[in-house]
Amino acid sequence: MNARVRRFLKGFLVTLGCLVVVFGLMQLIPYGRTHSNPPTIKEPEWDSPRTRELAVRACFDCHSNETKWPWYASVAPFSWVVEFDINSGRSLINFSEWNLPYPLASYSGLSVRTGSMPPVKYKLAHPEAQLTDQELVELARGLDATLKPAGQR
Fold first, then answer.
1. CA torsion sign, 51 to 153 to 103 to 80?
2. 3-state class of 62 per DSSP?
3. Chain center to CA of 19
4. Which is more confident, 24 or 38?
5. Which of 22, 75, 101, 107, by CA, is between 20 and 30 Å from 137?
């Protein structure tokens, strides 16, 4: 083995070792492992069981207290992203705590129609959330019928 190859391998192994140490240290940071699912207090009065079914598939993991925590939600740095996304989602609209006001709830159907919800990264990790075009139309209409005030529908 010539000196150039040895230098490359040594640099590669040192870099790999540093990455392993950093990854191990990340696991010591406690954020992202609470995995709490508080009890459901109240759900909206769904316009139909079908709307709720579609919302459960595409929305509930981030927008309810019925989150199904995937295995990677316990491994940093993925756990940080998952925890942040769920906390953010629940703060904007939480279908399990419908006793609180959610000013942006009436835009839920629009978010589905424009493709901003569910987000691409969520759909990549959760194939069950990849709704067909027809299901997206149904979900958007159902969310509008459920969440928009009567005068805005």
1. positive
2. helix
3. 27
4. 38
5. 101
Rg (CA), the chain: 21
Q: Tokens 């316009």 map to which residue?
A: 47
Determine the pLDDT at residue 32.
Answer: 67
Q: How many Cα atoms sit within 13 Å of 8 on the Cβ side?
A: 5
User: Would you say how long the chain is, in residues?
Assistant: 153
Q: What is the pLDDT of residue 153?
A: 60
Sheet strands (E) in the chain? none
Q: Which two structure tokens, joined as six digits, stand for 4?
A: 């150039």
pLDDT digits (tens, 9 = 90+) for 103-112: 999 999 999 9
Place of tokens 């508080």: 38
Q: Quick: pLDDT tens for 50-79.
A: 999 999 999 999 999 999 988 888 888 888
Q: By the 8 A CB rule, do 85 and 62 touch? A: yes
Number of H helices, E strands in the chain: 7, 0
Locate all alpha helices (DSSP H) within 27-132, ordered by sequence.
49-58, 60-63, 78-92, 108-113, 120-125
Q: What residues does each domain of the chain span?
A: 31-152
Alpha carbons 91 and 62: distance in angstroms, whole number: 10
Using the predicted structure, report yes or no on whether residue 28 has a pLDDT greater than 90.
no
